[in-house]
């Protein structure tokens, strides 16, 4: 399996919009915290892809590197969401206030699958769900600054989805 061409394109060569908000909005901040540290979130993606990278390092360094690079992009998303949440007037805690229990982020959210097919199926599912959730937020919020940032994040998530689909097809 030769995937190094994809490895060079784990992130888009497009700038991210400036981190800004129209005004403080704690309700919007809480919605963003779901994407920040919910069950399917940037925080979960980072840990899942890093776990997979560590697991695959000896067996498949190429896949390990791709997962590590995608994890780094997800870290950038987490950072942007954290700054947005803070600008909106809420401390960016690692919890999901949209959950009925205000659940703090947990390592139980990670898919610890070691079968390559199931691993990449899980990654595809997570990217698809993240894209749907970001798009739903974009449709419902009024803050144009936040919308632009979310739209840019979605572009990265679509690229990650495409990469995972190509990897799955090559297995």
The strands making up the biggest β-sheet line up spatially as 1-2
Distance between the termini: 8 Å
Uncertain regions spanning at least 5 consecutive residues? none
The percent range for strand residues is under 5%
Number of helices: 6
Report the helical percentage. Answer: 55-70%
Kindly name the structural category. Answer: mainly alpha
Strand and helix order:
HHHHEEHH
Average of pLDDT: 94
Largest sheet: 2 strands, antiparallel
| Backbone CA Rg | 16 Å
> Which term fits the overall shape?
globular
What is the tally of beta strands? Answer: 2
What does this 3D model show about the protein?
The protein is mainly alpha-helical. Helices cover 64% and strands 2% of the residues. It has helices at residues 4-7, 26-37, 42-56, 61-87, 116-140, 144-170, and strands at residues 95-96, 103-104. The protein has a two-stranded antiparallel ribbon with strand order 1-2. Helix 3 (42-56) packs antiparallel against helix 4 (61-87) and helix 5 (116-140) packs antiparallel against helix 6 (144-170). The longest helix has 27 residues, at 61-87.
Task: Please outline what is shown here.
By secondary structure, this protein is an all-alpha fold. 64% of the residues lie in helices and 2% in strands.
Keywords:
single chain, 171 residues, mainly alpha, two-stranded antiparallel ribbon, 6 helices, 2 strands, globular
Give the secondary structure arrangement, pairings included.
Elements: H1 4-7, H2 26-37, H3 42-56, H4 61-87, E1 95-96, E2 103-104, H5 116-140, H6 144-170
